[in-house]
Amino acid sequence: MPQPKTALVTGAASGIGAAVVAQIVDEQLFDSVIAVDIDPAVVDQYSTAAYEMVMPHMVDISEYAAVQSTVDIAEADGNICAVANCAGVSEPGWLDEITPDRWQRIIDVNLTGAYNVARATCIPMYERGVGTFVTVSSGAGQRGSMSGGVHYSAAKSGQFGLVRGLAKQLSPHIRVNCVVPGLIETPLTTESGLWNEDEIAAFEASLPAQRMGTAEEVADAISFLLGPKSSYITGELLTVDGGAQLS
């Protein structure tokens, strides 16, 4: 009897990650979901009958041992065959405010964290000969970000090289792609201090779409890349930004 097909989603307590988990559950895309977040609330959040297929774990993805331990637990009950790395953190600041410690924390979560998740999950998927890995970057990695800081821009840009390198190294067994959101209505945008209301309104007015995107719209792109309809896509940076790249 084949083992259940399991998806692992990081950053699952809110925003894009939570939207991905909800889509997987609602559409029964996989047999089970490992929902990972550094926020301890993730445990209670998914400990309900509606999320019976979800197994929550409180994990800091910047700590490789913690990620590997969680993957080992998940692999004991099923095969991880799809990964959505949605975890991310931002701490706005000008260059003189970004101390080496602040720089390292943003790099540790946004870039090293993506590597940690990829290493722990892609090796067993590669050995089984099948799998998909999607990580979430940011438009800040393409265009730079004054509000988010150079550390955030650098970390998110670094994910592009990680994705394309992995896509080559892990082919043909694993497809590796990156979703690049623009201004999305998530806590990272509305509660992090990156943007105030006037700045959001001005940015929305500059967009062809004339509005912020939703977490669900980004989750749609992630689900597409995780599923069979994207079977000939790997090494891709899929931008979901309402046309910001046209500005």
TrEMBL record:
Pfam families: adh_short_C2. The keyword Oxidoreductase applies. Keywords: Oxidoreductase. It comes from the Archaea. InterPro entries: NAD(P)-bd_dom_sf, SDR_fam. GO terms for molecular function: oxidoreductase activity, acting on the CH-OH group of donors, NAD or NADP as acceptor. The keyword Membrane does not apply. Signal peptide: none annotated. PANTHER family: 3-OXOACYL-[ACYL-CARRIER-PROTEIN] REDUCTASE, SHORT-CHAIN DEHYDROGENASES/REDUCTASES FAMILY MEMBER. Belongs to the short-chain dehydrogenases/reductases (SDR) family. This is SDR family oxidoreductase. It comes from Natronocalculus amylovorans.
